[in-house]
Amino acid sequence: MIEDMKEARFEGDELVIETQSTTETYDAKYLVAALLVFVAKGDGVISSEESGKMLSLVGTHFNLPSSESLELLRRAIRDIAENPDLRSLIEKLATILNDQEKEDIALMMLKVVAVDGRRDTQEMEHVSLAAEVIGISKDAMHRAYDRYFEETMPPGIDP
Q: Which of 15, 72, 100, 106 could form a disulfide with 33 if both were Cys (CB 3.0 to 4.6 A apart)?
């Protein structure tokens, strides 16, 4: 659980937060996991397809073993359940991302929304909110959509 912060500082690419009882570190891997969980929970439930897709995306993007990807996702799920307003933490972490990384994250969020065959309105609203919080530009979102459609359209069909 994220308690009241005493101090928050960056050490390299990690955000270090000191609370009354502990020191927690967060990095880009955690940020991606938290955003994907936030989007998947947009409709109230994380489906098994969404879980599998998040595990695959985090593992592939960061070249992590499944066990480490799973632990990141579990931590994000736990933190979101205990503290649904992670906005300030996510905003701080987003400062370490460049525009290409933000576009990549947008693409991953779109893949999580689509994996179960439904594009739930609430999940899409969560994508928009997450994009706003981490500062994904409209152009980067459009490029992410273009990349998603390029990857998912059958050959011969122009997106």
A: 72
